[in-house]
Every structure is written in structure tokens, then in C-alpha cells.
Amino acid sequence: MFLELQQSTVGYKTPLIEEISTGLDLGEICLLVGNNGVGKTTLIKSILNQTPLLSGSILLEEKSNISFSNRELAKKIAVVFSKSRVPANFTLADLIGFGKYIHYPYYFNLSKEDQNEVEEIIERLNLTQYTNFPLQKLSDGNLQKAFIGRALAQNSPMIILDEPTTHLDEENKIIILKLLRHLARTKNKLILFSSHDWRLAKEFADKMWLVNSGRMDSGITEELLLKHHELLNPQLFHMSSGFIAPHISAPTLEKEMLFSYLQKNFAKDLSKFQFEYLESFWTVTVGNQQQICTSFAEIALFINKQS
Fold first, then answer.
1. In what residue span(s) does the ABC transporter domain sit (predicted)?
2. Are 172 and 265 found together in one domain?
3. How many domains does the chain have?
4. In-domain check, residue 237
5. Element (H, E) at 120
6. Which site from 49, 73, 201, 213 is most exposed, i.e. has the minimal number of CB atoms within 10 Å?
């Protein structure tokens, strides 16, 4: 086991997550998921020995993490935080190249092999056109990808990413997730990826660490999702007082979108209405009346006619 937590309690003066006992091995991808403020970043900092444990221990390759120097830890774990200090007067290529300097004194020049690897990382992150851009001129999304590139350049066996897709659009998010999964499979990397978005888990992660109410539940992603139905069936909330939901028969996405539209626009009891989605249109039924609608606007018009 590369990473092992033994009865670990993380926090500051008071516990945030108590008595964690779990572990991860090389080649695995784990999504650390939980709402903001539950202790995800604190746990990551405890693994990196930046925040002391309140109790228990954390092992890296069967050796306590507190026994490693910062340089030794950097050789074992590369990390990307959601907010990182931007070095002044450096380009994107410089930043990614910094990942190599955990292996050399600061005054060394990168070898041709190292430079080729940095160029390959830049290309795989779809950042080639920004290679020589000053960091201050990069968008938040491209800057975040550059910090991820620096972590990849370290060639550490484990990579920790704390909310790394916060500033990324869907296309760039997919680029990062595919690249990380490729590294885990082909380079035997251990990836620990924190997010408040559990939906990344099903397609991306082998394992899942779910933090809730001061405890962590860990295991195979699909087994945890089956165990925690509240993740698969999130509660829909009301924005309009007086709104009572109708019966909606539709695939999850269409159901969620119709519910969203109705609860924002109708502060009334719609429980007598029934909605059914059939491939490309909605059948709306109330009493003995039925209407076929091809848009939400047509649905609204039909509802208003019944008032």
C-alpha cells in the first residue's frame, strides 16, 4: 500500500474528520468528495505533513510521513492546490519546467530529455500556443492547467489535486481527467483528486473518499454510490413559495431541467399535472385534457390556460 491512513483524525484545535482508516495504491484514482468546509484541504495538508494530525498516523510506503523532509515528500507526491501563488517574471514553460528541479540543484540547466518532456506535457495540455506567455497574462483556466503541468513534470509516483478543475470549462476539464487517467494506467501513478462534485466519480475514479458529518466513508466508487443514494438522487429545491411539484416521468436530465423551469416560474400547486417525456416532446395531462408540447414555452402556455 503506497498511502495508508491509520485512525487518522485531521483538524486544527477541533477535529474536522475523525478516525480515518483507509489506503490507496499505485495505479489507482481516488476522488475525495465532500461539501466545502468539511476538511478536504486539511486532509491533503495532513498527508503532505503541512498540518499535524490530531491523532493517528499517515504512512507512505510503510513509513510515517512526518519522517520525510520536504524535498523527500516532493519526490513522492506532486501537488496542485486550487489557489497557488503565481511566480513573477516567468513564462508558462518556465513554470512547468520548475517541476523538474526537485531532482536537481536550482542552478542546473534542464537536460534535453527534460526539455522534451516539458514540451510533451505542454502539448498534451493543449497549451502549445501559450508556451512563452508570461504567467500574468494567462487566463485562470490556462494558469491552472500550467500548475497541473508542473505537477506532472515532477514525475512523482503520487499526484494530489485540490479542486483542480474549478476554473476549467468542460473541454479542458475532460482533457485533464483523461490525462490523469492515462497516467494512472500507463505510468502506475496514484491520483488523489478532491472535488465537491461527486458526479466526476462514476466515469473517472476507481475509489472514492466521501466526507460527511466529520467521518469518511471509503471504497470502490460504484459500491459507495450504491450505498449513498442521496448522491445519485439529489434533492431538488424550490425557489418559489407555494410551488408544489407535479409528477414528471422522464430521463434524469430532462426531469431536472423541467423541474427547474417549473419551480422558477410557477408559485402554485401543480400536483394535478402529469408530464411525460417521449423522445423529443412532452405529453402534459391534467384531468381529461392532454397536450403535446415541444418546448417549455408551450408547456407554460398550457399551464396558464388551466388557471
1. 1-238
2. no
3. 2
4. no
5. helix 112-124
6. 213
Can you give the pLDDT at residue 216? 96
Per-residue cell: 101: 528541479
pLDDT band at 140; cut points 50, 70, 90: confident
* pTM score: 0.75
DSSP state of 68: S
34/143 same-domain check: yes
More confident residue, 106 or 50: 50
CA gap 84, 175 in Å, rounded: 21
Both 262 and 166 in one domain: the answer is no
Q: In angstroms, how far is CA 280 from the centroid of its own chain? A: 32
DSSP 8-state code for residue 73: H
How confident is the model over 112-122, as a mean pLDDT?
Answer: 91
Give the range of the structural domain holding residue 135, as residue numbers without chain letter: 3-232
Radius of gyration of the chain measured on its C-alpha atoms: 24
| Domain shared by 109 and 178, yes or no | yes
Same domain for 283 and 183 = no
Nearest to 299, CA basis, from 256, 266, 267, 253: 266
Residues 30 and 95 in one domain: yes
pLDDT tens per residue, range 83-108: 777 777 889 999 998 888 777 666 67
Nearest to 60 by CA among 176, 180, 231, 190: 190
- Entry field: residues in the chain: 307
Measured in degrees and rounded to the nearest 5, phi and psi for residue 287 equal 60, -125
* Residue at 186 is within a domain: yes
Closest C-alpha to 18, from 2, 5, 29? 5
Question: Phi-psi bin for 181: left (phi > 0), alpha (psi -120 to 50), beta?
Answer: alpha
